[in-house]
Design brief:
With 424 residues, this protein is α/β, with parallel strands linked by helices. It has 3 domains: 192 residues, Rossmann fold (3-Layer(aba) Sandwich), CATH 3.40.50.11540; 79 residues, Ubiquitin-like (UB roll) (Roll); 112 residues, NADH-ubiquinone oxidoreductase 51kDa subunit, iron-sulphur binding domain (de novo design (two linked rop proteins), Up-down Bundle), CATH 1.20.1440. Strand 2, helix 6 and strand 3 form a beta-alpha-beta unit. Helix 11 runs antiparallel to helix 14. The longest helix has 18 residues. The structure holds iron/sulfur cluster (SF4). Iron/sulfur cluster binds next to helix 12 and helix 14.
Length: 424
């Protein structure tokens, strides 16, 4: 058994290579059999994909659904471009993910497990495909496991978009006024959980809630994976106890220890001012600064970078990544990017652009079919607070060297020619 207070947990045992089934069984020796629903409830586990919804409640909701063909969908899409944690986990302990999915399938009475990995990442597809074949050779009992490989894009990892793709080969989010809502493949209900959540379910089923709670805080129990990037020696994935001071996470990842700001949660997350690096990394503490753990991204912004320009880069990219099926995405996000461009380059009346930007945020919020535009607005609003002094400088036309893109700013995929991005 892994010692209850030690790390790593979900990344335990792997030394740069995925554990085989035999190695997995050797490393994660089974504990006493538990009433898993009871343990899941008392563990306080919340989804590690971003929404932090209590896993027990989601499972309980699916248990109550009728239907003989329920499925568990394992989301390994890693929608956030700055995140690498699901890939790191699949490259370390693919069998832990699959074991958790099987536990969940048993709890809700699912016949199928649909593992979804972006086809653009063949290495991760291979890791999971090999693990699934190993399991199939071992036993035909339990839910049938299928591997699905949708194309990667930002919204493809959103759970309703993923289910849409499984139904119709289209990665478009579905309108869901109420959360949690029941998603369906065909007519049958599905439980969607990300890979890290599944791995934690496997550990709770093996070792129990008390063991799980030995790490983390009362309100945010357990460990979590952090994708650390930006001003760091090397982008990396760390497993930390929830509630660890951000300063300690930066030190463990050899990051810039005097950052200007941190982007937390992902591209639809929030900026946190560098003066708050002693804040414990848990939602109940980050909330005081308007931030949250979200999808587990921590991108470090160095002092020489321009936070307004970095926000513009992200907003531009997010505008291009939307599914453009709703007005807020099709028109609102490009307009936000345009206003930010005027502010950043002190052109076309930046003061008016600043005022427009604020009112646009109010008018776009809550009007998309999914939360994509709301995430962008959250990011922009946090930028207006954290980089308020810089914005004031831009508005009066003072030169800003940060727009020259120093090294180690936020990496945005496939955006070598970001100035050429166009939208109508
Ligand atoms: S809000 Fe944007 S990303 Fe979400 S469904 Fe509408 S167009 Fe697509």
């Amino acid at each position: 058994m892994i010692s209850s207070g030690s790390l790593p947990r979900v990344l335990h045992g792997s030394e740069g290579r995925p554990l085989s089934l035999a190695q997995h069984e050797e490393v994660f020796i089974a504990g006493t059999p538990f009433n898993v629903m009871h343990e899941l409830e008392h563990s306080g586990l919340t989804g590690r994909g971003g929404a932090a919804f209590p896993t027990f409640r989601k499972v309980d909701l699916l248990r109550l659904q009728r239907g003989h063909n329920k499925s568990v969908v394992v989301n390994v899409m890693e929608g956030e471009p700055a995140a690498h944690k699901e890939f790191a986990l699949a490259g370390a302990n693919p069998h832990l993910i699959l074991e958790g999915a099987q536990v969940l399938a048993g709890l809700i009475g699912a016949k199928r497990i649909l593992v979804c990995v972006a086809r653009d990442n063949p290495t991760v597809v291979n890791h999971l495909s090999r693990a699934i074949h190993e399991l199939e050779r071992r036993s035909l009992r339990g839910a049938k496991i299928e591997l699905h490989t949708p194309p990667w894009r930002y919204v493809a990892g959103e759970e309703s978009a993923l289910v849409h793709w499984l139904n119709d080969n289209e990665s478009l989010p579905q309108y869901r006024p109420e959360r949690p809502s029941i998603l369906r493949v065909g007519h049958s209900p599905v439980l969607v959980d990300n890979a890290e959540t599944c791995a934690n379910v496997a550990l709770i089923a093996r070792f129990g809630a008390e063991w799980f709670r030995k790490l983390g805080t009362e309100k945010s129990p357990g460990s979590t994976l952090v994708s650390l990037t930006g001003a760091v020696e090397r982008s990396t994935v760390l497993e930390v106890s929830l509630g660890t001071p951000i300063r300690d996470i930066l030190a463990a990842g050899h990051a810039d220890m005097a950052p200007q700001a941190l982007l937390l949660g992902g591209f639809g997350g929030t900026w946190l001012h560098g003066q708050h690096i002693d804040t414990p990394y848990a939602n109940e503490h980050l909330g005081a600064h308007g931030a949250n753990v979200g999808a587990g991204v921590m991108a470090v912004l160095p002092r020489e970078a321009c936070g307004v320009y970095e926000t513009l880069r992200i907003v531009r990219w997010m505008a291009n990544e939307s599914a453009r099926q709703c007005g807020p995405c099709a028109f609102g996000l490009p307009a936000l990017a345009e206003d930010l461009t005027s502010i950043t380059h002190s052109s076309k009346d930046p003061k008016a652009a600043y005022e427009r930007l604020q009112s646009r945020c109010d008018s776009i919020e809550g009007r998309g079919a999914c939360r994509h535009p709301d995430g962008v607005i959250q990011l922009v609003r946090s930028a207006l607070i954290v980089f308020a002094d810089d914005i004031a400088q831009h508005i009066v036309g003072r030169p800003c060297t940060g727009t020259q893109r120093p090294k180690h700013t936020i990496t945005i995929p496939s955006l070598e020619h970001e100035d050429e991005l166009i939208w109508e």
